[in-house]
Design the sequence.
């Protein structure tokens, strides 16, 4: 260690301890560096360095293969899950021999008017028919245009009533 570096080290150590102890610590550090320079550590043999490198390369290859297989396995599992989901949905939808997509009761298919069985549905269908008639009346060229605005606002109010009534029931 050069004298300048030793002085800098001593100044630094004096900020943390007494000046006499700082000089003694700086001298011990200087002596330790001299001993280390006189007795260098032995270098590893070329064979040992090559064995360490070969082992590192082998481990990296194993990790790489494992990562590739793990990624492949995750893709296969995801594909199998999707196929299983599709199959289960298909089985549920086509459980009647593939004749219908969803289960619809036979009574609905056989009756022409199912509004007779459901009062809410009957009410809504009657209201829809009335609104449809009003729309046809508005589209007619023979009607007065002054009343068209009043009828549209009336129809909007009726639609709002029907909507609230439908969601209440």
Sequence:
């Amino acid at each position: 260690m050069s004298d300048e570096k030793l002085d800098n080290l001593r100044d630094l150590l004096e900020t943390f301890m007494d000046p006499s102890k700082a000089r003694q610590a700086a001298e011990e550090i200087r002596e330790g560096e001299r001993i280390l320079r006189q007795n260098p550590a032995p270098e590893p043999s070329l064979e040992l360095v090559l064995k360490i490198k070969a082992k590192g390369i082998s481990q990296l290859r194993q990790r790489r293969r494992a990562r590739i297989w793990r990624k492949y396995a995750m893709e296969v599992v995801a594909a199998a899950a999707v196929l299983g989901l599709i199959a289960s949905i298909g089985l549920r939808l086509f459980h009647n021999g593939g004749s219908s997509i969803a289960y619809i009761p036979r009574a609905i298919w056989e009756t022409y008017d199912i509004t007779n069985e459901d009062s809410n549905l009957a009410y809504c269908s009657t209201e829809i028919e009335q609104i449809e008639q009003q729309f046809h009346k508005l589209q007619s060229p023979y009607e007065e245009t002054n009343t068209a605005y009043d009828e549209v606002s009336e129809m909007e109010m009726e639609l709002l009533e029907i909507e609230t009534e439908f969601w209440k029931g």
